[in-house]
Structure prediction request, 125 residues.
Amino acid sequence: PRLVKISVRRSDNLEREAALARAMTQTSYAEVLRAGDGSLGRSLAVEGQLFDVRHDGYSSVLLVDVKDGCKKAPCLAKVIYGVQTQLEKGRKVKAFGKVVRFVDGARSGERIPEVRAELVVGGAK
Prediction:
């Protein structure tokens, strides 16, 4: 058995929390792609349409088609979120977290950022 310390913060307004998280970001999607491994550990805000969603244990793996900083669509980011979400493909989503590594993308030779999300806010379809 393991003991893991977690902290939980309640909020009555997720949009306000998203605005606060956006203000605290250290880099942009375009800069992450340019800097590569130099951006590991930096906080990032990802906004776009949910391209794919899967569940892995108690976590959700979201593939987000990022709109900001995208030169040639699709511009994907893999987002790992520590809870099972009920989000559907095609929904707009905002995710805030840290870049943890780069993984293989959909196109041959493409590397996309993997983000460990602290906050995910779903929007309208």
User: Anything to note?
Assistant: The longest strand covers residues 43-56. The longest helix spans residues 14-23. Residues 28 and 34 are 10 Å apart (CA to CA).
